[in-house]
Write a structure and sequence with these properties.
Belongs to the class-I aminoacyl-tRNA synthetase family. TyrS type 2 subfamily. This protein has 423 residues and is an alpha/beta fold. 47% of the residues lie in helices and 13% in strands. The protein has three domains: 9-243, Rossmann fold; 269-344, Tyrosyl-Transfer RNA Synthetase; 354-422, RNA-binding S4 domain (Structural Genomics Hypothetical 15.5 Kd Protein In mrcA-pckA Intergenic Region, Chain A). The chain has helices at residues 9-14, 26-36, 45-58, 77-91, 122-136, 151-166, 171-174, 178-186, 192-208, 220-232, 269-277, 281-291, 296-307, 312-327, 330-344, 364-370, 377-385, and strands spanning 41-43, 63-68, 95-100, 145-149, 212-216, 239-243, 354-357, 362-363, 389-391, 394-395, 402-403, 406-412, 416-422. Helix 2 (26-36) packs across helix 3 (45-58), helix 11 (269-277) packs across helix 15 and helix 12 (281-291) packs parallel to helix 14. The chain is globular and about 80 Å long. The termini are far apart.
Length: 423
């Protein structure tokens, strides 16, 4: 697919908005409410409302695009915020396009970065893309999802097409991007190829004739580029919907694997359940809004009940079970709840890792590190200072403790256990 010539400005203006007015029915209003739930911005709202009305009146589904660069193989709950919105719109009957940026991954998205992102190899992109879609299918309905790769049309552009595309945007407009501006003022290098990224992302919307593009709040500039280029190519411009970045388990930083405050969607059910039960009562409602598939009316009733005296733990259990069920099963969610309650009573899970170590007697810090219960001996000492280490149910306070020959149940915090055999 290739688009190499631009229409006249009058043609672009003619395509800028729907001309026929369709009735705004209750069903359209409901679809609008679902679109707005939890979102940061929906631009322009009036255009999206008209698109929804047109779709209902004509029976033609809207084309909704989400592009993801497979820069890492694993997806956590923070990534699913946008996927959840896609699923909600998919359930309304619209066409969902899961776009894998195999071409744009070779450039590297500069959004929010103060350095040039290193490009991935073709092998890394292929491996990550396969894992991404497999995990995304736990949220989206794979039978109703259109899978596309932007190399389909980006490779076909060639040098001539790339030059023609680059002519449709100015350097001054490109420098309006906050991250580019900061890097330029700081004297941090900006490579020319980084300017191509938002152009190529916007061109994806032209190729796919998108009606709506979703992304995180950090993607707003790139999403608006899609609107601009669609008008340049004589298409009706897409609306854009940005979703907030989900806070991690700490409730402060955005969820990130590197910050250790994440919940991976392929983690064991018990681990996932325990992590979700660790969030604060305040953060829980944020998770409900962005991660739960319950209606907002139901969530509001549940929140009112908690404010009236119901134990917030009940609501947190419901949330944890819903999410574990989504990514595992209802049976796994029930077992995870039982396991969590057992641990809360000081019990030991039925299945814990078995570790064999040599060198007895071995210091407790070395035991924790070698058993995989602490990343380092110094962190093990910190955990002991905090009262978070137990051996056979007894809290360890002596950092000089050495364990002799035998088998011990070693516990760190509420969720980490190992049955350690020392020889």
């Amino acid at each position: 697919m290739s688009f190499t010539s631009a229409p006249s400005s009058s043609a672009a203006a003619a395509a800028s908005a729907p001309t026929t007015e369709y009735p705004i029915t209750d069903k359209v209003r409901e679809a609008m409410a679902i679109s707005l739930r939890g979102c940061d911005e929906l631009l322009p709202e009036a255009e999206w409302l008209r698109k929804l009305a047109r779709s209902e009146a004509t029976g033609v589904p809207l084309r909704i695009k989400l592009g993801l660069d497979p820069t890492a193989p694993d997806i956590h709950l923070g990534h699913t915020v946008v996927l959840n919105k896609m699923r909600q719109l998919q359930d309304l009957g619209h066409t969902v396009i899961f776009l894998i940026g195999d071409f744009t991954s070779m450039i590297g998205d500069p959004s929010g970065r103060n350095t040039t992102r290193p490009p991935l190899t073709a092998e890394q992109i292929k491996a990550n893309a396969e894992t991404y879609y497999k995990q995304a299918s736990l949220v989206l309905d794979p039978q109703k999802t259109e899978i596309r790769y932007n190399s389909e049309w980006s490779d076909a552009l060639g040098a001539r097409g790339m030059i023609q595309l680059a002519a449709k945007y100015t350097v001054a407009r490109m420098m309006e991007r906050d991250d580019f501006t900061k890097r330029f003022k700081a004297g941090t290098p900006i490579s020319i190829h980084e300017f191509l990224y938002p152009l190529m992302q916007g061109y994806d919307s032209v190729a796919l004739k998108a009606d709506l593009e979703l992304g995180g709040t950090d993607q707003k500039f790139n999403l608006l580029m899609g609107r601009h280029l669609q008008q340049e190519y004589g298409q009706e411009p897409q609306c854009i919907l940005t979703m907030p970045l989900l806070e991690g388990l700490d409730g402060v930083e955005k969820m990130s694997k590197s910050k250790g405050n994440y919940v991976g969607i392929t983690e064991p059910a018990n681990e996932m359940f325990g992590k979700l039960m660790s969030i604060s009562d305040t953060l829980m409602w944020r998770y409900y809004e962005l991660l739960s598939f319950r209606s907002m009316d139901e969530i509001r009733r549940l929140k009112a009940e908690c404010e009236a005296g119901r134990n917030p733990r009940d609501a947190k259990v419901m949330l944890a079970q819903e999410i574990v069920t989504r990514f595992h099963s209802a049976k796994a969610a029930e077992e995870a709840l039982a396991d969590f309650n057992n641990r809360a009573r000081g019990g030991i899970p039925d299945e814990i890792p078995e570790v064999s170590l040599s060198g007895a007697p071995l210091g407790i810090g070395a035991v924790l590190k070698q058993a995989g219960l602490a990343p380092s001996t110094s962190e093990a000492m910190r955990l002991i200072d905090g009262g978070g280490v137990r051996v056979d149910g007894a809290t360890v306070s002596d950092k000089a403790l050495k364990l002799g020959v035998g088998t011990y149940v070693v516990q760190v915090g509420k969720r980490k256990f190992a049955r350690v055999t020392l020889a």
